[in-house]
Amino acid sequence: MSTKYQTGHEVPAEFPRILKDFVREILRYQPKNIYQFGAEYFEDKLQGGSQLSPMQMSEEQLIQYLHNIFLSADTDGSGLLDKKEFKKLMKSSDMNIPKKAVKVLYTEMDSDGSGSIDYKEFVQGAAQVLLLYAAQNQAALETAEEEAYASAEAAEYIAHGMTSQEVEEIVQASWNAADADGSGFLDQKELKHFLKDLPIGLTKKEMNMIMMEVDANEDGLVSYQTFIPLMHNCLFEVTRQMILRSFHSQSDLELLLQTSCEQFDKDGTGRLKIKKAASALKHADVGLSKFQILSVCGNCPSSDQKTVLISEFVPFASKTIESLLGTDAANASAAAKLRGDLLQRLGEEEVVINGKTLRDIQESLLSFFQQADPTGSGVLEHSQFEILVCEQLEASGLDVTFQLQQLLLSVAEEQADGSVIYSDAIVDAVRQLEYMDTEARLRDLGA
Predict the structure, then answer these.
(1) How far apart are alpha carbons 82 and 106 in whole angstroms?
(2) For position 188, which CATH number holds?
(3) What is the pLDDT of residues 61-90, one digit of tens each?
(4) How many degrees, rounded to 5, is the angle at CA 276 between CA 274 and CA 280?
(5) Is the pLDDT assigned to residue 3 strictly greater than 60?
(6) Are 216 and 176 in the same domain?
(7) pLDDT 10s digits, 375-419
(8) Which residue of 28, 58, 61, 434 has the lowest C-beta tally within 10 Å?
(9) Could you tell me which of 44, 47, 50, 48 has the C-alpha nearest to residue 22?
(10) pTM for the structure as a whole
């Protein structure tokens, strides 16, 4: 809509692409001085982009770039790179690889274990690194866009929701209830009860995060004045996370990574040290190499070089892995791994149905049919077996479900002489019952 305040300037059609490319480079390099980085970036663009990063090059330019840096690093002209030459190459290249990761990468590139890297090994390895960085850049960009939107929406929601005074009145009322002696301070136990009773639906993780960040005095007590600013921050974060979760349903891959991260987050803080995050990725077993794992953990946008925030690490890692392996393949692999883990976990638990273990059910059924088999032959006429199952089993007081009755009838095999080996029917029916119970529990767990 045109107004008298509208300027005569138009936004160039290519501006969104330019801005997107610039944001991607910021996310990749994470410069300390964004203004200086921006000035140098656009100055280079004005000069024709003479210093393209490998991520910006065409396939032909990239091959030439890798060829040139390999030759420049191969100082003795042997056609091979030793460790010293490789480290020097990595340091001078635009790949921006941490020192620790360089050692891992060298080992992975040396595919034949010769102790040196030839040109073919180098090009293949470098291509994998750049593919990984491309996936990370895309994941970081998507994550940053989602984060920015969620933060803006959370701020808007809170601004048009309860006023600060209304929030403080709710918090004050709950605080007073927890502050039994009226001192204005809460100890750690009282604070925990206060957070649990606070009528805003805090999760256990959110409560743990507050407990960690709240400032206690020398006596271990927390004042109301100290807590209120933290409460406002918490409300914003709860709202922001709710909006982020609404973007899309959790994929099998995200669920697998989330589960793995939570296993390593013993204190429930919602954060993991980089080393723990790497262990969680390794435990998830999604097909990443050691270098890829280190790179994903080290380049997560939420990383402070020491820890990652699980709620931001999982989507970032998931997007990166999907870009590397393909969305369908990554999620199919994750779904199989999830199911395998759950089956193993369920297999360690004893199945109990109506208060009885499978062994109890099997023994009770065997005893019931043996009473109808006075000669102990182990067989019953098929018609007699059906009557026992349909009419007498329910009245026997064994508390047998209709499902089990149907299973006994369906698995019973009539022999050539018209008899049924009832012990075999019992074993098969109980196995089917166990399988159906496991499947039901897997569905309940989302597998």
Answers:
(1) 9
(2) 1.10.238.10
(3) 777 888 888 888 888 888 899 888 888 888
(4) 115
(5) no
(6) yes
(7) 899 999 988 988 888 888 877 777 777 778 888 888 888 888 889
(8) 58
(9) 44
(10) 0.49
